[in-house]
Amino acid sequence: MYDIIVIGAGPAGLTAALYALRADKTVLVLEKGTFGGQITYSPQIENYPGFATMSGNEFAEKLVDQVLSQGAEVEMETVTEIRDNGATKTVITEEGEYEAKAVIIATGVKHRQTGLPKENELVGEGISYCAVCDGAFFKGQTVAVLGGGNSALQEAVLLSEGCEKVYVIQNLDFFTGEARLVEKLKEKANVEFIMGTVITEFIGDKSLEGLKLKKEADGSESELKVDGLFVAIGLIPNNKAFADIAGLDEWGYIDSDESCVTKTAGVFVAGDCRKKQIRQITTAAADGSVAALAACRYIDSM
């Protein structure tokens, strides 16, 4: 029996584990994939307080080492269900079952990818999923943004402030984002829209050098030289297994506010997998501390 089981070992989950351990709780961290989560895809982090620069992998390694040094137990397993027993919770994985007094879900999100060859190899070498995180590395250069929703348009606005040229590539003949963002981009001389077009291939082996494009209407093909591509075609929350116990909104995010509590007593949520406006390392870490302290209060009141 553990005091707290944390599902997910990204910044939110590891911060939650750290705060719980320092409150003298026993903690098990369950992670199905990569320790550090999406941040490990970032080649350089320059927006985390206290560190001028570090890679995503360095950040993840420091967090993991810190949590392990505090006494956390870690297992590489995929969680399939959480069962509510009242005073305790059973976390069921593909390998077995674990008991805890409280559970913190910190499973994060996945960036929706294009699915094209070489995409994973070029992440951090020209392909990015976050302009806030990586946009500064492309100052004075030419970049493209893939997508037509609010996220893509906001990324383009941000990039237009520092990049020489920004192309916005949308597969439809219209944008699905807010009209005010479209109008704001239209006012910028260094922004160009490429509508009704898809990317068919990434050019470059060790780093991104350009894009092969195809016009949907007539199938005509062209090439576009860019230094970077920001993919903004949506996020996929990893919450399907927790729909019943935690409650999801219409987009699949756990329906919780800044308190990080869910509809089930003893089950908490932290990080990008919950409904929120801003998804950054700092907000994930903040959620982790809030959820852990809430879980500790819950356990202490039992």
Gist of the model:
The protein has helices at residues 11-22, 56-69, 119-122, 131-134, 150-160, 179-186, 243-246, 281-300, and strands at 2-7, 27-31, 73-76, 79-84, 89-93, 97-105, 109-111, 127-128, 142-146, 165-169, 191-194, 197-203, 210-215, 221-225, 228-231, 235-237, 267-269. 25% of the residues lie in helices and 27% in strands.
Structure description:
The protein is of the alpha/beta class. It has 2 domains: 2-111 and 235-300, 3-Layer(bba) Sandwich (FAD/NAD(P)-binding domain), CATH 3.50.50; 119-231, 3-Layer(bba) Sandwich (FAD/NAD(P)-binding domain), CATH 3.50.50. Helix content is 25%, strand content 27%. The protein contains 8 helices and 17 strands. The strands form 4 sheets. Strands 1, 2, 3, 4, 5, 6 and 17 form a 7-stranded mixed β-sheet that branches. Strands 8-15-9-10-11 form a 5-stranded parallel β-sheet, covered by helices on one side. Strand 5 (89-93) and strand 6 form a beta hairpin. Helix 1 (11-22) runs parallel beside helix 2, helix 1 (11-22) runs parallel beside helix 8 (281-300) and helix 5 packs parallel to helix 6. The chain is elongated. The two termini are 15 Å apart. The model has no long low-confidence stretch (mean pLDDT 94).
